[in-house]
């Protein structure tokens, strides 16, 4: 730092705007600064902006805190420190985000429902038992305790926590470390995944697309063009371009095989090329050079037609987001490293790009099949984003960041919220843009996931419902994320989604079970207490609760089928199913009590002794009936269809039978005066088991009926809220548009193109119609892709810098 006319080393924390600092190779820039006069500086700011390559900064340009200097040395003046820097603004967005998760909301809703149900039962009992029936104070307290002990889902926090903890352990084995438990539940409902490009979808490592190499010299093939470019590259202390080109050889040693290096000309900002003078095995001298295409073309003094063709190739590469690299060759008959040599010969053009990971395309395809829409959000150029999207099959309907901030004619045709929802991605974005994209998707009722690895991703990672930091992410990204991947790429996410949906299914099964049991205990025992004035012992309810909770703990390892689509807490389905099933079980318990206590039905039909006027044995019979049907309910709620056809986990099955053996032995042999219970014998136990089995079957019928009734509305909601490109009225077009839809699906990378078998057993006409509507909708907004791009970018910069737009209009 230059202070008082002297240079001295100081801590970065004491820098203030206006300080002059010296920046050199290897330094981490301590604050946002503006470069002064000097040679250009090469800066790696990929962790901040997501750009794939180091960028060259010249005098008067800005450098950002946290960037690393790769080449050069220059002085700069500090203009922002602390929270006012690019890095600091991202950190501020992270700190300002504090959301209440869906899981907490659901637990609160279910807890409130159970408490309200119990409160209703208690109020009714208090009103009826004391003012109307004039019951004893102690009897009333016992009945109230029965409702409290049996109705409150005491095990819910433990069961759900254990389920998520076991799921978190399983995810860690798959390469996903969970920092926030509830992220598992939210990942199960994720329907939009916003992914950073650099280092996540791609390797963040330059490569040469050999298929696109253009050859301009006769008698030379693509392999020889790459070899000459490799000879003009360093084999030690390589930069990204040198490493990419040498890496294209089958063996990096080929770059110097059978030649002797005489002189290497390193890259410099003036000539913008490298060159190697070498001697081959025959003693002939040669020189190979690579660099900026314009410099190489000027070096070769090419004819106009060659120059025109080369410029066309360069433009074609640029349209696809590919960086061009020219290659030239000359002979050196003078055999001197300082001689001019023979005329340069223009050899070819190499396309450089950041290649997608080997598993990215398959991962995106699988994500789409699971109902998760993947959007690319990158700080790179729009053309690069489109090319990556094309290669990955995720679409090219992408927009520049200016589309998020522009107003008026630039994006007037489509609202920004709808534009974000329809787009396949956005390019040239800053942390504020990523944060805004995630926020708006959440406002559209999407469960949004975000993956990233840089400081620029941290605010969006924190804001997203599920923030996922990929392998080798920066500390800032890891700190903001909910899940940290230990394996490169996104393939781990698909495994995590499937595992999360299985975990979610277990939790959802338990919540339906808990609501049903609350309704069943509260209303079943309330009617028995009020109609027959039968006081069930609180101790027996406690035993039922202990055995039930012990059994239900094993649901954390139950065998379940993950949902094929994003799953979410449908409270309406949970409450309706719980109320119906609970009310049915309460009714069956009341009917059983009436038949055993007031009639001789069981005595006449099965030859067992009557339980009339025998409250202690009636207590044992009622206890066994409630215990069996309550625990058997878990087999109904755990299955999506008929419970008889979905095999439960062995642990759950074993726990159920052990608990019921204990319950049956208590009912048969127990003689506890303090609990007012006396054994009923094996005859009554057999009758109660038969009664429970008969009354169990309608539970399955009711569950299937409820889900069938609710599924119509749920499907309509899915179409209206989640599927953006289709409506129910369009399903009549299936057969007419099936072939065209399949072609569109192939075009967007959703399936391999086939000439026959357009519709097979795994793909319905309805699905193809949806894809057709998607493509048609995309066509409607595609024209916005490049519209007023320059104007929009200027508007974006003006807004980000905080300039007065009205003053700008007046000046114009």
TrEMBL record:
It comes from Trifolium pratense. Its EC number is 7.1.2.1. The keyword Transmembrane applies. Signal peptide: none annotated. PROSITE patterns: ATPASE_E1_E2 (PS00154). Residues 1-94 form the P-type ATPase A domain. One of its GO terms (molecular function) is P-type proton-exporting transporter activity. It is an enzyme of class 7 (translocase). This is Plasma membrane ATPase. Its main location: membrane. InterPro entries: ATPase_P-typ_cyto_dom_N (IPR023299), ATPase_P-typ_P_site (IPR018303), ATPase_P-typ_TM_dom_sf (IPR023298), ATPase_P-typ_transduc_dom_A_sf (IPR008250), ATPase_P-type_domA (IPR059000), HAD-like_sf (IPR036412), HAD_sf (IPR023214), P-type_ATPase_IIIA (IPR006534). One of its GO terms (cellular component) is plasma membrane. GO terms for biological process: proton export across plasma membrane. Keywords: ATP-binding, Hydrogen ion transport, Ion transport, Magnesium, Membrane, Metal-binding, Nucleotide-binding, Phosphoprotein, Translocase, Transmembrane, Transmembrane helix, Transport.
